[in-house]
Amino acid sequence: MRSEKEMMELILKIASDDERIRAVYMNGSRTNPTVPKDIFQDYDIVYVVTETESFIKDEGWIERFGELLLLQEPDKNDQLSGVQANVTRSYGYLMLFQDGNRIDLHIETQEKMLEEYGVDKLTLPLLDKDNILPSIPLPTDVDYHVKQPSEAMFFNCCNDFWWCLQNVAKGIWRDELPYAKQMFEGIIRQRLDEMVEWYIGCNTDFQVSAGKMGKYYKKYLPEPYWKQYEKTYSNHEYANFWHSIFVTCELFRTLAKEVADDLSFTYLLMDDQNMTNYLEHVKNLPFDAEGIY
Question: What pLDDT, on a 0 to 100 scale, did the predictor assign at position 188?
Fold first, then answer.
């Protein structure tokens, strides 16, 4: 596997040798000093170019980066699907190489760059042939820090969590596994994760990021809470699914009460108690029942 030094030298050499490429910058995790380096980190690179057409026509130009294992061109895929994409201003290549390295490369015109450069505070200039890159502060992940919720946000999260659990229970009773699972993973987990992040925020003065899709939860949650979080995942067996639901309820309840105490909010205890009782009832409801109660 090529080293970071080798990859960066290659990325910059290709840019230096090509007159169409006038500047290079990087964003993403490699610009974030708080993120530990590992072998799976990709290179989020932007080439500022004089035009995009010649790059798009020459489908082989990206071979200079190495032997590809897999390539995705999101803009091309959009076009094939009938979605409008202005490829005269920007175009993307997601490249995974045979040695395991990955580059997410975007080419964009100077006009496009001036509209967006530095909006993502994890932006680092690497090459500027014409001094066209505006001056920006050093990279920081402050925009990705957990944000403190308002009381309305807290209320909505709690209310939606407890309300939507009845849909999960209904799906299990009906033996509609895809519906029940998607309701749980798509809505209930989203609300649980919101509460997890607010809990992390409360315990770090809202000065850290919980990571994309919760990848740092294990780092910031106390071990007993993390062990509970692990158990919120289950397989297709309904007995295991029900167990994960009640573990999820217990964890949500614990975290929400702590967040409420910390931020001086009111926890919806009645919603919690009513839905917990309802779930217990539906769990034991015969499959041929003619009434819920």
Answer: 98
Alpha-carbon distance 188 to 68, whole Å? 39
> Domain residues of the chain, as ranges?
4-142, 145-283
Which amino acid, 190?
Answer: Q
- For helices 223-230 and 238-263, give the axis angle rounded to 10 degrees: 140
Tokens coding 18:
């090509």
| pLDDT for position 226 | 98
CA distance 272 to 158: 9
Q: What are phi and psi for residue 70, nearest 5 degrees?
A: -155, 145
What pLDDT digit, counting tens, does each position of 223-279 carry? 999 999 999 999 999 999 999 999 999 999 999 999 999 999 999 999 999 999 999
Which runs of E-coded beta strand occur in 60-122?
Answer: 68-72, 90-97, 102-109
Cβ atoms of 45 and 11 closer than 8 Å: yes
Q: What is the pTM of this model?
A: 0.91
Q: How confident is the model at residue 36 (pLDDT cuts 50, 70, 90)?
A: confident
Superfamily of domain 145-283, CATH level 4? Nucleotidyltransferases  domain 2 (1.20.120.330)
Token pair listed for 194: 């919101």
Superfamily of domain 4-142: Beta Polymerase, domain 2 (3.30.460.10)
> What are the Cα distances from residue 21, in Å, to 65, 89, 99, 108, 225?
15, 14, 26, 9, 49
pLDDT on residue 59: 87
Q: Is 195 exposed, middle or buried (0-12, 13-18, 19+ CB in 10 A)?
A: buried
